[in-house]
Amino acid sequence: MSLKEKIKEQSKELLQEIIAIRRHLHAHPELSFQEFETSKYICSVLEKWNIPYTTGWVKTGIVAIIKGKNPDKKCIALRADMDALPILETEGRTYGSKNTGVMHACGHDVHTASLLGTAKILNDLKYEFEGSIKLIFQPGEELLPGGASLMIKEGVLKNPNVECIFGQHVFPSLEAGKVGFRKGMYMASTDELYLTVIGKGGHAAMPKDYNNPIFIAGEILKQLHSFFIEKKTNDVPTVIAFGKFVANGATNIIPEKVSVEGTFRTMDEAWRKEAHEKITEIATTVAQQMQGKCEVEIRKGYPFLSNNEDLTEEAIKSAKEFLGDDNVIDLDLRMTAEDFAFYSQEIPACFYRLGTANFEKGITAGVHTSQFDIDENALETGMGLMAYLALKELSI
Prior knowledge:
CATH class of the largest domain: Alpha Beta
Shape: elongated
Radius of gyration: 24 Å
Strand content: 15-25%
Structural class: alpha/beta
Strand order of the largest sheet: 1-2-4-3-5-16-6-15
Number of strands: 16
C-alpha cells in the first residue's frame, strides 16, 4: 500500500475521534493568550499517542516533534492556532460553547483538531519517512501582536531549524472535501487606527460657544476615504475603514472629543509606511483647519502574507494527487489578515484554505459570526492532506 493510501485509510479511521476532539475544543473555547485549558487538553492527547512535546511557548503554546529516519536530514513545520473569539454562539448545538460570550467562530478548533489528527498519522508512519516534522500549536492569532510573532521571537523556528512551514484555515464558502491555494501574495497587512478628535464642548443651543468635534471627525473620515479609496493613489490593493465612532454627547450636549477606530490594510510595505504618514497628515491638518485637534495612533499589526511560489506549486501538485484535480481550486487575493504572515516573512511558507461548507445542509455561515459551523467531514481532508503535504515535502 502506498503512503497516500495509508494516509487516506488512517484519516477515515481517525475521523470520529478527531470529530470528538474538535467538539471538545469547540465546547471549551478560550480567548487569545488565555488558552490554558486548551493547552492542557492538547497535551493530554499528545501524551496518549506518545508524541513528545514541549510547553510554555508564549505561556500556552505547544511544540511537538515527530522524528522519522535520519531526523537531521530536513525539518519542516505544520501550524495550527488555538484561540477563540469574544462572540456569543447561537444556541442549539450539543457541542456549543460552555464559556458564555466566547466562541470558536474562526475555526481554530478545526485547525487544532486537524493538526492533532495529522500528528497521529505521521507518528504512526515515522519509520517510513526521513527528516523531522515540528507541530506548532500556537496561541493568540486573533490579538496583536499575534502569537506567531512571539513564538518566532522565542525561537520556534530554531533547534532544529525549520526549512518551510504549512498552515491551513477553514473556508466556509468552499464545499468540504475541497481546498484552495494561491501562489505569491495572498493576504493583506493589517493595522489598527485610533483617532482622538478634540473640539470644544457646550450646550447644543449655543453654537457660537462650541466647536463640534463630531463635524471635525466626519470631515476627517470623508477626506481619508476620498484620498485612499476614491482617488486610488496607487495600484496596490488598499482598504481603509472605520467601524467605531464614540461621541458620548446627548441631544443637547456637544462633547469635548470624539474617538474613532478603524483598520488600514494593504499589500506593499513601502506603501504601508507612506500611507501611515498620510493618514496622520490628513487627520491632523483637517482638524487644525477646523480649529480643532486630532491625535493619531497607528498600531502596526500583521505584515502581508506571501506564499512561497515554489513551495506552493509543489503543494498544489501534491493536493491534486491526494484529492483529485477537481477538488483543488485557485484562490483570489484577500484583504483579510493572518498572523501566519510572520512565518512567511521568515521562511518559505504555504497557507491554504480548507473547504468546510455543506450547501445541502445549509452549513454556509461565515467566520466571525455566531452561526459559524462546519461539515465535520472536512476534518478527514484537513488531517490527511496536511500529512501528505508534509511527507511529500520531506521527500524532495
